[in-house]
Amino acid sequence: MSEIPFPYLQNGSDRVALVEGHNSYNYSEVNSRINRFATGLLGDQEDLQEERIAFFMPASLDYVTTMHGVWRAGGITFPVKCSLCSF
């Protein structure tokens, strides 16, 4: 996995990092989610080698997890703004 410095995520802090609805998540919880996501993306690869990955979702814990997970795995994110698309 890439060594991207996110000291605020890696210090194991119990401080609140994100609030979503009635739930709050500390930096340790968010960092764990990011690591699991990045590991899943990588499979048996060492690095995504700047592969571009688009994703489409509203601002949320999943958005933060996805963006940071792709970066941590060595990819480049391409978030698509939800308001530009229709269902």
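the 2nd protein, sequnce then structure:
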Amino acid sequence: MIDALTRKISELGADSYYVRQVSLSDEEIEVLIRRSRRKTMALHVSPDELVELRVPMKCPWAEINAFLESKLNWVAKVRNELANMPRREKTRFQDGSVHRYLGSDFPLRLVAGRPNLVMQTQGAIVLRCSKPEREPLVERHLNNWYRTQAERFFPLRVESCLQKFDESIPFKKVNCRRMKAQWGSCSRNGEICLNSMLMQVPTAAIDFVITHELCHLRHFSHSKSFYQLLSSVMPDWKEREKLLLS
């Protein structure tokens, strides 16, 4: 917690944050409070158990404290869930290590040679590069391959998902890149951006993320109208969301 907080503070300007210590069950924790241009307060607990509260620029401290106090039980619940989650082993990028593609696991087969090449066969992902013993190099080539596959695959899935909408969606373009903290995002100009690492999950989960972002082009918040539209287009979205997170 302290390490995560220190890391976050180092990224911010000296006047951009406040730290408040609160009592949570049988321990004291620190909450990072940041003022921003958002209109409402938002509380977030990250996987490293950093608790961050973002508030409007002119929000009174009395309201901030009251909001935080009302959410302490929720914070305790989330931190407990995170603490009990099984820790994932670090992904290895060596011959025989297992990597996922569209929901299926494949062993990685490394071959020394040029030019660089990655391809998925029926039984493996084959990667050829000059120095296959260097894991960072293998990782970079493999991630680039995921992105290339995504650039080909995502537009096809977007077109398929768009056909399920009865109403017009102001969609213009799909982009993809590797993102650390989210599967997808959208902008008011009609563009959606998808995480290239979605190529690791089943197509049904990819379609959920795409449909979720397309619904946001009509309803930008997670309002009742947003969920009504999502449910009408994809009635099984909750099952697909679980598939994405599994």
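The chain is about 40% helix and 25% strand. The longest helix spans residues 135-162.
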